[in-house]
């Protein structure tokens, strides 16, 4: 039962880094708040998706949250570009 948990501050910091890296990867121009939001929501989305697919990334530590945050934020940015092509242009 001693599973590693990330607090709110850690989730915001890691989410911000994940969103920023996703911003660089997808060549978008977003703000700090959008980076944090996309990183945190993206980590939750990718964690759920990876769980459904049976994929494990690094366990429940900050690196696993970072990788899933980057993947999830990139997926959210690509989905946004599909429905709103001019939202976050290159």
SSE map:
Elements: H1 8-26, H2 32-53, H3 62-83
Helix pairs in contact: 1-2, 1-3, 2-3
Describe the structure.
This protein has a domain at 32-81. 70% of the residues lie in helices and 0% in strands. The chain contains three helices and no strands.
**Series of H and E elements:** HHH
Strand count: 0
CA-based shape: globular
Largest sheet descriptor: none
C-alpha termini separation = 45 Å
The level of helicity is over 70%
Counting copies of identical and different chains, the oligomeric state is single chain
Cα Rg: 13 Å
Coarse structural class: mainly alpha
* Beta-strand content estimate: under 5%
The total count of helices amounts to: 3
Low-pLDDT segments: none
Mean pLDDT across residues: 81
Summarize the structure in short.
The protein is an all-alpha fold and 90 residues long. The protein contains 3 helices and no strands. 70% of the residues lie in helices and 0% in strands.
Could you list some keywords that capture this structure?
mainly alpha, 3 helices, single chain, 0% strand, 90 residues
């Amino acid at each position: 039962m001693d599973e590693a948990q990330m607090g709110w501050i850690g989730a915001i910091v890691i989410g911000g880094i994940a969103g920023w890296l996703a911003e660089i990867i997808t060549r978008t121009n977003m703000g700090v708040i959008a980076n944090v939001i996309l990183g945190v929501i993206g980590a939750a989305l990718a964690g759920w998706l990876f769980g459904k697919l049976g994929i494990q990334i690094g366990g429940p530590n900050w690196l696993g949250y970072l990788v899933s945050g980057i993947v999830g934020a990139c997926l959210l940015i690509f989905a946004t570009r599909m429905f709103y092509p001019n939202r976050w242009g290159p």
